[in-house]
């Protein structure tokens, strides 16, 4: 039991550190997931939860950092009993969220491991039950974990460093693009390629005749067989990675193909009401220079804001470029900043920039 307890202890601490770091890699994405939960709770339980939406980014950093800090405390056995009680509160909280999502099919991905690993609602709940099991083993057998690796002042210093690192990692990612991009729109990916299925769908057909059931790899030509069902044999490989990328002009015409052709410098404004207006001065300078580039760069904006509101907004910020519309969720996946910049060549993503990291024209031209 001593060795089993130690395995559970390491697994419990390491999983919390890993889960927290994955979320801190993309705190904006974690905040989006929290907002989704708050909207569900506001609709199903009380409108009061909508008040938490404005604090989603703070809670993203706080909860993700807390996971890392508690995981480190477990691994160091620093105030282990007290740490385990706090962990229990967190596990019960996440257990409630995942059970609610699974039982009522409200949030299809809990965001437990960010975009690194997608879990179904029931898989997320099962993961929390496993963590509760690990917690139970460690809590019940603390006598095998009496030695503290960093007692006294040393422990306090190590926990302070862990806290500073966790918060610092999250704050740095909050003001820039994620350190590691696990979404389809990461640099190096080709949007047109990901809009195509890797391979053609393969099917298995089920037919019956005179009480006999038979499966076919090809649709039978014998009309005496009666069709019952069709099963896709390669559902994952026959489904495109990107299924919702579509861009429209102001008349509602689909211009996706034009957007994915040639050299493009795109400014993405997810929501003009929440866009940081003070950051448009350097952006406008870059866009104006790009329009005169010898690289023949098309400059444009894509937004999910209605044309009437965006017209007023772009006049306020002097954004003198043609603009198009797209789904808000897609734009949030493309760039984790509002506004943000994306550089394309025939639909291949060459670079993405947070509004804190607006490049100069020379840096953009080097990409082509």
TrEMBL record:
Q: What are the Methylamine utilisation protein MauE domain coordinates in residue numbering?
A: 1-137
TM regions (residue ranges): 55-76, 83-102, 122-141, 153-174
Q: Where in or outside the cell?
A: Membrane
Q: Which InterPro entries match?
A: Methylamine_util_MauE
The membrane topology term of the UniProt record is:
Multi-pass membrane protein
| Organism expressing this protein natively | Hymenobacter nivis
In the UniProt record, which is one GO cellular component term?
Answer: membrane
Q: Which UniProt keywords apply?
A: Membrane, Transmembrane, Transmembrane helix
Principal location class: membrane
Put simply, this protein is called: DoxX family protein
Gene Ontology biological process terms, A to Z: methylamine metabolic process
